[in-house]
From TrEMBL:
PROSITE patterns assigned: HTH_CROC1
Family annotation (SUPFAM superfamilies): lambda repressor-like DNA-binding domains, P-loop containing nucleoside triphosphate hydrolases
Compositional bias (Pro residues): 108-124
Keywords, in A-Z order: Membrane, Transmembrane, Transmembrane helix
Residue ranges constituting the HTH cro/C1-type domain according to the UniProt record: 9-64
Region (Disordered): 73-139
Protein name: HTH cro/C1-type domain-containing protein
Keyword Membrane tagged: yes
TM spans (from-to): 519-540, 552-579, 600-617, 637-659, 689-708, 728-753
Low complexity biased stretches: 82-107
Amino acid sequence: MANEFSTLLRQLRREAGMTQEDLAEHAGVGVRTVRGLETGERADPRVTTVRRLADALGLTPEAREELLAAAVRRTGPGGRPAGTEAAERSSPAGAAAVAAAPATAPLAAPPAAPPDEGPPLPEPEVPERSVPEPPAPGLHATLADVAEHLAQAVAARWQREEEQRQVHDPYPLPVRWRTGPEDLTDHWANIRRLPAGAEHGPLDLGGRLNDVLDVYRRIPSGRLVVLGRPGSGKTILAVRFVLEHLKARGRAEAVPVIFSIGSWDPTAITLRDWLIAQLRRDHPGLAAPGPGGTSLAAALVETGRVLPVLDGFDEIADGLRRPALEALNATVLPLLLTSRPAEYAAAVGETDVLTSAAAVQLTDLTLDDLADYLPRTTRKARRGNAAGTAWDPVLTELRERPDSRAGANLAPVLTTPLMVTLARAVYSDTSGHDPAALLDTERFGSPGELEEHLLDNFTATVYRPRPDHRPGGRPRPGFDPDRSRHWLGYLAHHLTRLDTPNLEWWRLGAGLGRATRTLVTAVVVAVAIGVVDAAVGTLFDPVGYQLADGLVAGLVAGIMFGITYWFLVAARGTVVAPTDVRLKLFGRTGRSRRRTGQRFLVGILCGLVFGFGYGYVRGVLNGLLMHAGPALALRAALLDALVYGLVFALATGPTFGLLDALESPLDIRSAVNPVSLLRTNCRTVVTQFFVWAPTFALLLALGPWALIQPLSLVLGPLVWSPTATLKLAVISGLCGPLGYVLALTAWGQWVVFGRIWLPLTGRLPRSPVAFLEDAYERGVLRQSGAVYQFRHTRLQHHLARAHEGRPAGGAA
């Protein structure tokens, strides 16, 4: 029977205009293999075979990832027909069984490739320290395949990042370094991993950007600290190290992955657990089950298949750097750590150097570097000197009059790649801007003023009107430079308040006060439910009556969901994180069952609050319309409050519990960029809506018929018509899920704050997604997995300071 992988492979082959025979020939596999995979007869596609098929089809990185993900899902739990033990061991579930087996149990060798699939790829030898030997051949093969997948995703991400930063246009700036200070370096015997009594001496670790991998491999311990002042090129070096390492990587070597370590709290979570959490966030597919019941991310970290590149040690809060360094010293993981010198030295002074780690320190760019680079970034000068450029006066001043006030101000500014890159963006990439303005001492009286000028003009420069188009022929959206700087300033200020470099779409409202978040959520829910109730209710009752009913329903629902949001989210200082829907109600952990039980009780209380409030006000309204006396109206209101309260409690409790039971981490189909993750979560919300709506409506339809007769025996005759039941089920079946989505899902909170409140108050544009994607394409932001980050923390801090200095009624 054909499954998702079979359908996807067949679709991709047809889109490529290939027959099964063509695909088999280009991929170097047998026709029977292709035919079997497309029909579902082959239930155990090897990852090597899937990669060959992807290469033959010429897939984009996104399509390749989707095909590989489908292959992994096909052999995962519940998606695999019963097969041989060998097939079991080649899947993540089989690997889990191997890891859970007793140590004395015999382990079967991994299956040989079918004759028409070709031999497996050879595994090159690697240094002994790179990867610990896994406990079983089947487990080794599975994790090696997962690591290959991760390596491809990491390489694609950082290649795109280098393109966005124009690192190779016209060539990378010459980042250089020298061996770091001895007081920030461990004993060379420890770094060299020498036995006691062996003679030792320092290693020569000086080099430049293209040598970074060779320098790292000279260090037997595999632990290196890269020190450099702000803007000196630490992140550029980290990216180049990752790409060079991946290019030379053997199948058994660890995969280098960049982690922004500034978000790590070593007092709350261990390094390994934090690495695992970051991998699952940036690569949601690694949340899939792995060996021993853990995730694939945990299996990769625990078996040494991830080489952490920890960028930004200096961004860790002051009080956490010492415990962070102590935690790093408690591990023997090979790693590369970047930091500013002062912050790292302060942490070392409080505890000790990073154990077994060598250190290098980045050096400044030279005048020769500037003379080689800057002229090649701009147009040639016209009017006589074809070899001259607009940078010639600046370079002449720096070379011939270095002691002049202009030269003394500008020279220290243009010693870091960050400032040179900003100068290039402002003056080389923008027509009509003369770099000679940098020599104006009346305008810029100090190096600091020059740096602020470059940072301040960067956003205005990149948002200048341009006639170019984006890939696919789509015109670039136009954003006013002043408004764009205001919006970016708010985002930078938002990140500063949260003390994180990660701009997450589901946390855009987290920068607001708890009371504000709760009030805004309650108001939006009230308006939405009131409108839906009033509109749909006109099918059953007169317009005037239904407008009043919609007002009552919206007001009570807003209060109820506001209270729920406060206790479940705001009061805890948390946000609603993106989730997926998993149709699995059994085999859950004790913790998840307790959480579902708590949601069940919360649902009952929410139903009681809403039902009692709505029923009471509705009863009063009906009494007034019927001109009943006060006593009769009060009795009718209390009866309605009791009935509606019980009906909604019995319907809301099970529905809340069911939705919580179906929530799970995002599966392997989830994207690894912010926009795709947003779309994935939107699909999740749609699924949750269509689970809630019929379930809630059915329970509300059955509730009155189950309660009316028993209550009539106690309270006297009660009237409940079929029309009232239908109306209650239809309207509440729509309004209940709507309130849940807006208040208690990540996508709903994105709509409330990202699409409604923040644009309405002028903090963000009407289309935040288009703005963020455009900022990424312009090089203001970068992507790190499912989150955005400012391309440099210096730019983020500058924009935040500028935003805080604006008057309260700043640009909208």
